[in-house]
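Predict the 3D structure for this chain.
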Amino acid sequence: MKYMENGRNVTEFVLLGLTENPKMQKIVFVVFFVIYTFTVVGNVLIVVTIHASLSLGSPMYFFLAYLSFIDACYSSVNTPKLIVDSLHEKKTILFNGCMTQIFGEHFFGGAEGILLTVMAYDRYVAICKPLHYTAIMNRRVCGLLVGVVWVGGFLHATIQILFIFRLPFCGPNIIDHFMCDLNPLLNLACTDTHTLGLFVAANSGFICLLNFLLLMVSYVVILRSLRTHSLVARRKALSTCVSHITVVVLFFVPCIFVYMRPAATLSIDKAVAVFYTIITPMLNPLIYTLRNSQIKDAIRKLFQVTNKCSGSQH
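Done. Predicted structure below.
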């Protein structure tokens, strides 16, 4: 175990990972390498498709491109280290690396939570106030909302780091997890972290719960307003809303479970963390493309143009 010069703070942590079984670690490597590759390729494909397609110029797709970009970044905070660590018997992470992981998780996680709220507002205006949609959701407003997303994510992550960074860690330095997170670190601190644990529950858990409830209420309002629309408009709006609601549930429910409780480590925490940090970013491209014919058509056209360009070069 390594210590800093003042003899109080641990300079590195040992991660136990998902499993300590060597055979299982090989399976972990293969499975999560495939998942991570699919996540990055899928999300980058959506970003490129939306920026390259003139038919996907509405605010909904503008925000979806940012969601895909955030998902690609969010999964890149922990997954590469998990993949590399599965090849090694001893898995360590430096204190500063641990803090960077926590900042990245909460920066991109916080930004995604705010962006999902922005996307719900966009759908509300589009469905409930269609005549004023282009006037309300103009380029300036969209740019401003994206700015709020990044600033909100940065502030959320900074607040978490400011509190966790100052905690004394005297040992032990073993984290029974595949990544650094707030609750496992609170359990390792050489001080009473009960009050800080309540703060974490308020800053992360309560915000997640409040956001989730607001989003669910907003989608109920949107779905109720669809009764006055035509059958075709209802089907199109319902398809979009179902995709959004699915993503909201997949993102917020695990976060509420992890952070809306005292700082205790449960055996199921690793599985839940895998779900919201690795699986959900992979599922988002599938959820939006499988239910959206415009994106599927735009991806098809993008590949056709790419094939034509590569064919003309030969």
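The two ends are 59 Å apart (CA to CA).
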